[in-house]
Amino acid sequence: MWRSPAAEPIKLPLVVLTSENTSSAAEILAAALQAKGRAQIIGSGTCGCVLAIRNRHALPDGGVLDVSEFDYKTAGGVRLEGAGVKPDTLVPVTRADVYSRHDRAFERAINLLD
Questions:
Q1: Residues 87, 44: contact at Cβ < 8 Å?
Q2: What is the CA radius of gyration of the chain?
Q3: Could you count the other beta carbons within 10 Å of the beta carbon of residue 59?
Q4: Residue (of 55, 50, 56, 62) closest to 26 by Cα position
Q5: Three-state SS at 57
Q6: Would you write out the chain's pLDDT as a tens digit for each of its 114 residues?
Q7: Is the pTM of this model over 0.90?
């Protein structure tokens, strides 16, 4: 069996940028890092889309019914589906930011890391 030598945990600052487009496993990672106090979450709330489609059923009218059979809750019992991850520092994206290509969440993260 391979074992790594005992090492001190890395104490570097860590920031995770999120938006409404952050979904699935990225939400789970952000939630876990936030819950452990390992990272600051900056941006806007995540999608709340963590359920995996387990079964897909064809319907007689040509439609499709997707059924998720698994759910996900954080270690603290928080259900992410439909709620997402709430950032520690909320920095919503504005229309002006998009048009000017200005990323205020990124700037906030850089300031936090400095």
A1: yes
A2: 18
A3: 8
A4: 50
A5: strand
A6: 677 777 777 788 999 999 999 988 999 999 999 999 999 999 999 999 888 777 888 999 999 988 877 778 888 888 898 899 999 999 998 999 989 999 999 999 999 998
A7: no
